[in-house]
Amino acid sequence: MNDPDDLIHWPSFPPGTKSLLAKHLTKDIWEKYHDKRDSAGVSFKTCIFSGCKNLDSGIGVYAGSENSYVAFKDFFDRII
């Protein structure tokens, strides 16, 4: 996996993954946002890509722009 667009299915995490991403990324959240972008053009997949690739991450999620917090509110509110 080299690009956020490589995420074509709801990511699964191996047992023991302790990131906030693994804890809060439900199938419902994935279905709601996987093909969405915020007003700055940042995709939801970009926000979660690092945590999908680096399973030892503590958080695993990065807002790509200030608007990511609004555009993906149902997810980021769980993380924060």
Overview of the structural elements:
With 80 residues, the protein is mainly α. It has one domain: ATP:guanido phosphotransferase, N-terminal domain (Transferase Creatine Kinase, Chain A, domain 1), CATH 1.10.135. The protein is 41% helix and 0% strand. It contains five helices and no strands. It has helices at residues 20-24, 27-33, 44-53, 68-71, 73-79. It is globular and about 35 Å long. The N and C termini lie far apart (27 Å). The mean pLDDT is 94.
Short description:
This protein is mostly helical and 80 residues long. The protein contains five helices and no strands.
Chain-wise SSE layout:
Layout: H1 20-24, H2 27-33, H3 44-53, H4 68-71, H5 73-79
Relevant terms:
80 residues, mainly alpha, Transferase Creatine Kinase, Chain A, domain 1, 5 helices, globular
Annotated CATH topology: Transferase Creatine Kinase, Chain A, domain 1
Uncertain spans: none
N-to-C SSE series? HHHHH
By DSSP, the count of extended strands is: 0
Beta-strand percentage?
under 5%
CATH class wording = Mainly Alpha
CATH architecture type: Orthogonal Bundle
Number of helices: 5
Briefly note the structural class of the backbone: mainly alpha
Proportion of helical residues? 40-55%
Oligomerization status of the protein chains:
single chain
How would you describe the shape? globular
Instruction: Tell me the count of domains.
Output: 1
